[in-house]
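User: Structure please.
Assistant: Input sequence and predicted structure:
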Amino acid sequence: MITVPIGLRAIAAVVVCAVLIAAPGCSWKPADQPPLGRVRGTVTMNGRPLPNVEIVFAPQKGRVSEALTDSAGGYELWYVSGTRGAKVGSHKVVIQYGETPADEPPATKRPKIPAKYNTRSELRAEVKPGSNTIDFAIESK
């Protein structure tokens, strides 16, 4: 018979408990999470990609979903950390500049985004279950 020191048994018990607690957490979602649709798309202004802008989908009631566009103007929405998507239904959409990226020179002139796309947004989008591609082609005037 092999005897295992008490300290080693305690460590093994802690590891087993941690695995049992963490494993269900990998796919855990809040009990109050609504049905979501995955949303991705592209934001352009005057026909050119609009990089490094924040896009926010705000449902009439509930949590917003957000994304930051990449250098090609592409985005994919996040509902909460680790969960992609947006609540199924109608959303007001806001496109605005977030913080200036650390690698962007301070003198870089970014085109002005008109208020009708942010502070007084007129943009709307319908999120359906499953995969959604929702592009925004906005104009500077």
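The first helix runs from residue 6 to 25.
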